[in-house]
Amino acid sequence: MSKVLERDAAQPKLHFGADERAAHGRAARAETPRASHAALQVDARDPVALLDASSPQREPDLVPIRYGRMLTSPFAFYRGSAVLMAHDLASTPRSGLNVQLCGDAHLANFGGFASPERTFVFDLNDFDETLRGPFEWDLKRLAASFEVAGRHRGFDAKVRRSAVSAAIGSYREAMREFAGKGNLDVWYARLDLTTVLDDLRAQNDKKQARAVERGAEKARTKDSLRAFAKLTEEVDGERRIVSDPPLIVPIRELAADQDHDTVEDDVRALLRNYRSTLQDDRRQLLESFSYVDMARKVVGVGSVGTRCWIVLLTGRDSGDPLFLQVKEANQSVLEAHLGASSVANHGQRVVEGQRLMQAAGDTFLGWIHIDAGLDGKGRDFYIRQLWDWKASADLETILPRGLGIYARLCGWTLARAHARSGDRIAIAAYLGGGKVFDDAVAEFSIAYADQNDRDFAALAEAVRSGRIEAKEGL
Asked: Are 252 and 325 within one domain?
């Protein structure tokens, strides 16, 4: 086609008809056949060197914890090695159909949480690596995660293939559905608890429906009140965040050589700067809370070592707490292969990507830049609530049928996220109604899970040889 449908965001938006957009998607098959997505050719890279390249940017005392968590299992390793997959995807065939990527769309980065309207929704929930790029990069990372997780659970090849195919097929079917919907219908689409339960009951799957209901009830108790009870204690008549080094270290200990009042004034100034990134009504809400305490907290697997803080605020009284998470945002692992972000602040990159991809975002989602932290260096951060009905699949106990159902939920959700930011009509036309693309990505997933096993072994050997230090059990 003579016209380019993928435009730079800074240029005026060109509007093409549905037929022309569909033709663009079908034409992309000629340049990048759907079957070609089975290909995986990994160069002679050093996986340990690629993983360790970010260590100088992390808290030195936490880097061994990162590796210890990654060595828990090949799936834990997969969760923490987005940089490896970004490197490997760079040499695979590209559809040329771009969307806002999550950048780390493995199955553990999906889950349930509370919407601002206090309904329980299912969505993507991690956007540290978000960037614009080929839609299939997210889908390949998601599909391969089901193969890796299935191996971790000891499921046979047939069960694993079924789960992987369920994720890919659900994505393809949902994208074709979204291609036929109006723009507002796509924008307002979401997957909430009621929809999930209705679907399970329609399939007469009462057991899974009860399990989902129990999980949702448990998640509703995971909020700031629960965090307040679990993460704070009374010190000299005031509530303070507990000290549990190295996983939780209050700022009073990290900045012990600095004047306490000066540190608190600095924190309050940072919170004021963060408020400017919120909508006015949410800014007013945040201003009704008062700062109480702050601590460094270790979170996740791949994020371990990046700076993450939890901030305790209170509203009406000490029984009205709000916990915020302030998480460092560095360059996306995708940028080395897809180009730099259009925004300079990586906290803003994360927030804008999240707002674009999620159907329901956190009320307190915002960002800041700190010119000089405790180490005197400038850093970008994004901010959200610490716990707000957060729930995720228990991969240690999930059964084959449950894994398949979860795969379909993740596939639909990823399609909806991509449909908001990419050309859903072109992508749907590219995918088509058959399973050519599904089968190709399923084959890719097997090959990548094999590669993941080799990379996991390489990290384990690096620890045994003393090249890398790992602390397990933290």
From this structure: yes
Based on the domain organization, do 205 and 277 belong to the same domain? no
Question: Which residues constitute the domain of residue 365?
Answer: 224-385
Tracing tokens 């990527």 back to the chain, one arrives at 101
Task: Tell me whether residue 11 is in a domain.
Answer: no
Tell me how many domains the chain contains.
2
Type of residue numbered 289: F
Q: In DSSP terms, which residues pair with 323 in a beta bridge? A: 312
d(CA 312, CA 228): 8
- Show the tokens assigned to 153: 């659970």
In a domain, 14, yes or no: no
Q: Note whether 426 and 24 are within 8 A (CB).
A: yes
Residues 329 and 435 grouped into a single domain: no
Q: Which amino acid is at 67?
A: Y
- Which tokens sit at 79? 């969760």
What confidence score (pLDDT) does residue 7 get?
Answer: 44
Assess if residue 354 is contained within a domain: yes
What is the Cα–Cα distance from 184 to 122, expressed in whole angstroms? 19
Q: How far apart are CA 71 and CA 80, in angstroms?
A: 10
Mean pLDDT (10-residue bins), the chain, 474 residues: 44 79 97 98 95 95 96 97 98 97 96 80 93 98 98 97 98 98 96 77 74 74 83 90 94 80 78 91 94 92 92 92 94 97 96 95 92 78 87 84 92 97 97 97 98 98 97 92
User: Are 77 and 166 members of one domain?
Assistant: yes
- Same domain? 271 vs 190: no
Of the residues 385, 418, 433, which one is the last residue of a structural domain? 385
Q: Which residue has tokens 């003579």?
A: 2
Q: Is the pTM of this model over 0.85?
A: yes
Tell me, yes or no, whether 159 and 254 share the same domain. no
| 317 and 432 housed in the same domain | no
Residue 87 and residue 33 share a domain: yes
User: Of 335, 360, 385, at which residue does a domain stop?
Assistant: 385
